[in-house]
């Protein structure tokens, strides 16, 4: 009996969905993406190979898996062809046997990119034409992939054999009781309807978007799992209640690559020790820097340093509500290894009142302050831990406290980027 599992981001995106989708793909027959475009990015590490995908589902690096790019996506022909050719150069054979693109997906044109560059900076978009393309789709003036591949250009010729009726394909897999994994880009708080509008993306990120973005009925979904970091990050503008340091401070930081170039390995090690010491003296900005440094929190697509903060319980509860979550995958727990004290945001203070439920009303959020519960850290390397009971007691308490506060079970804990750095707690939520 097959299962259909939807994977969503439970925060502001960048939660580590790529690794978890790759991990779950092992037992999936079909992997499909239902929203967004090349404004998203995820990284998969397999031994010495690092794969950075922006459009193609990460199941493509597995043999005998069908990967689908759904009608809810917007696709830049140049970028998708670039990803395909990059995989082919690494020895992966890409054909309609392992990759299908919905004929109803809309095409990003040069005019969309130009419009985005001119207007998108105000809310921190990636300037890749995503919003303008969705705008044309809603205005019924867009170009769909089914029409684009009729054109005589090199990208159209390359993509034409892959363009299919993907809704029909997925539903046939459903009828055959196959295991199906549906992945969304970005995170819940960036959803066009349920995110922190207007600082959001242009598509439906939440689990309901899997149905409209792929052409399947809601009764076909068995499980919804959210990926959440053990802390929280955000790229671009918008409210981040638990932010450590100020947005401007983060924007002014160099990337890790720039630091390596200017400081060298020895200088980088010295800087990390300095950040570590200031962090554990209670300096909030350096706590954010330590999260950023340990977690390599720089955008896969943009390279921008991500704003970092403590885990927000209100956001987790909100994600559970709008997605109908069955479980959570907690990623990057190891990033907290260096902290003597770790905080959880359990409520907001708003004009003298205590809020215990999240609102996506930005005007209210801008006036909120976090109310924290402080827990003891574990100050121990957990990257080689294989079972929950082997984690330090304080790490176990941290996970259990999040489960208690959010009322959502944690089914997987990730303690590193490799596939084998994964602790399974609840097999019943997986394939």
Written overview of the protein:
This protein is α/β, with parallel strands linked by helices. Among the domains are: 4-231, Adenylosuccinate Synthetase, subunit A, domain 1 (Adenylosuccinate Synthetase, Chain A, domain 1, 3-Layer(aba) Sandwich); 247-308, no CATH class. It is built from 14 helices and 20 strands. It has helices spanning 17-25, 77-89, 110-119, 130-138, 145-148, 154-159, 166-175, 208-212, 247-251, 256-279, 284-294, 313-323, 362-365, 393-406; strands spanning 4-9, 30-33, 42-46, 49-53, 66-69, 74-75, 99-102, 106-107, 163-164, 180-183, 223-229, 232-234, 307-309, 311-312, 327-331, 341-350, 353-355, 368-376, 410-414, 422-424. A ten-stranded mixed sheet has the order 9-7-5-2-10-1-11-15-19-20, with helices on both faces. Strand 3 and strand 4 (49-53) form a beta hairpin. The longest helix has 24 residues, at 256-279. The radius of gyration is 21 Å and the shape is globular. The mean pLDDT is 94.
């Amino acid at each position: 009996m097959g299962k259909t599992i939807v994977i969503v981001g439970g925060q502001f995106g960048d939660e580590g969905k790529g690794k978890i989708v790759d991990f779950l793909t092992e037992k999936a027959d079909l992997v499909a993406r239902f929203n967004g475009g090349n404004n998203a990015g995820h990284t998969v590490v397999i031994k010495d190979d690092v794969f950075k995908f922006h459009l193609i589902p990460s199941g493509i690096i597995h043999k005998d898996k069908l990967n689908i790019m759904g009608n809810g996506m917007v696709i830049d022909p140049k970028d998708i062809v670039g990803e395909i050719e990059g995989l082919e150069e690494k020895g992966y054979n890409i054909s309609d046997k392992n990759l299908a693109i919905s004929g109803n997906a809309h095409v990003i044109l040069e005019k969309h990119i130009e419009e985005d560059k001119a207007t998108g900076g105000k809310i921190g978009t990636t300037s890749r034409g995503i919003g303008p393309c969705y705008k044309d789709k809603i205005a019924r003036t867009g170009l769909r992939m089914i029409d684009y591949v009729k054109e005589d250009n090199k990208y159209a010729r390359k993509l034409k054999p892959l363009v299919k009726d993907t809704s029909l394909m997925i539903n046939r897999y459903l009828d055959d009781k196959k295991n199906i994994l549906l992945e969304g880009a970005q995170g819940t708080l960036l959803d066009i309807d349920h995110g922190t509008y207007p600082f959001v993306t242009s598509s439906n990120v939440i689990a309901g978007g899997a149905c409209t973005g792929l052409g399947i009925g809601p009764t076909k979904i068995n499980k919804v799992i959210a990926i959440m970091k053990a802390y929280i990050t955000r790229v671009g503008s918008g409210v981040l209640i638990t932010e450590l340091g100020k947005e401007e401070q983060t924007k002014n930081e160099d990337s890790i690559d720039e630091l390596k170039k200017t400081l060298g390995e020895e200088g980088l090690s010295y800087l990390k020790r300095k950040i570590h010491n200031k962090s554990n003296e209670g300096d909030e900005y350096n706590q954010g820097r330590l999260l950023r440094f340990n977690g390599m929190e720089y955008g896969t697509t943009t390279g921008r340093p991500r704003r970092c903060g403590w885990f927000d319980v209100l956001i987790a509860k909100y994600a559970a509500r709008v997605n109908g979550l069955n479980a959570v995958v907690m990623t990057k727990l190891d990033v907290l290894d260096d902290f003597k004290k770790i905080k959880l945001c359990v409520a907001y203070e708003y004009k003298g009142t205590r809020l215990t439920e999240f609102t996506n009303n930005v005007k209210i959020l801008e006036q909120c302050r976090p109310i924290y519960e402080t827990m003891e850290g574990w100050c121990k390397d957990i990257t080689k831990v294989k079972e929950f009971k082997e984690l330090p007691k304080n790490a176990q308490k941290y996970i259990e406290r999040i489960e208690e506060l959010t009322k959502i079970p944690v089914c997987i804990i990730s303690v590193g980027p490799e596939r084998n750095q994964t602790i399974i707690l609840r097999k019943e939520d997986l394939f």
